[in-house]
Amino acid sequence: MSFNYNTISTPGTGLYKVKGSKHFGYAYNARSEEEIAGLLEKVKAEHHSARHVAYAWRLGIEKEHYRANDDGEPANSAGKPILGQIEKYDLTNVLIAVVRYFGGTKLGVGGLIDAYRTAAQMAIDDATVVEKQLLAHFKIHFEYDRMSEVMLAIRVNAWENFDPDFRQSCSIKIAILPEKKDEIELAFQAFSDIRREYLGIY
């Protein structure tokens, strides 16, 4: 298993125009299929009048989970060339979506492939591509009255954190170097009501 992987740290956008058609490309970091679904909803809401929103995504350090969707375009003319750009840049944990507005002139399958590929590449080039290290991920479960203890531990240890849910039954995800996994247990061992859920290394 590789201990490093390439992904996107900040989103990117691109616009490719050809024969009156416009192709808006979007590149996002994504950690789960649920997050991908939310990002696609956002893009579709912003472009509610567009004919097609084709996309491709890949998840996992071994790049084992991926999907390409043509969204009504001819088979393999949209999603596959987008996925090809993900593979070209050796990215994972990413979603690339391309929105197409038809300009009145048919592009043909070859033209569609080129347009979707180019818009995807432009979005990736506009994003910030980074090499990241494998991290151990935990989900911390706690009641609201333990908020201060949890957030103090996060600040003191400088843990990367994301996906906070601060309703009455709270949770937050933490990512740390695998060799520092014991920090989690040490930080919360005095609190029996703060539960640590190990999510794996990725």
Topology (elements, then pairings):
Elements: E1 4-10, E2 12-18, E3 21-29, H1 33-46, E4 52-59, E5 65-69, H2 79-88, E6 94-101, H3 108-126, E7 128-133, E8 136-143, H4 147-157, E9 160-165, E10 169-176, H5 182-188, E11 195-201
Antiparallel strand pairs: 1-7, 2-3, 3-6, 4-5, 4-6, 8-10, 8-11, 9-10
Organism: Cryomorpha ignava
Family: Belongs to the IMPACT family.
Domain Impact N-terminal: 19-124
Write a structural description.
- This protein is an alpha+beta fold.
- It folds into two domains: 4-132, Ribosomal Protein S5, domain 2; 135-201, Alpha-Beta Plaits, CATH 3.30.70.
- Helix content is 30%, strand content 39%.
- It has helices at residues 33-46, 79-88, 108-126, 147-157, 182-188, and strands at residues 4-10, 12-18, 21-29, 52-59, 65-69, 94-101, 128-133, 136-143, 160-165, 169-176, 195-201.
- The strands form three sheets. The protein has a five-stranded antiparallel β-sheet, sandwiched between helices.
- Helix 2 (79-88) crosses helix 3.
- It is elongated.
- The model has no long low-confidence stretch (mean pLDDT 93).
List keywords for this structure.
Ribosomal_Su5_D2-typ_SF; 5-stranded antiparallel β-sheet; 39% strand; 202 residues; YigZ family protein; Impact_N; Impact_N_sf; alpha+beta; Alpha-Beta Plaits
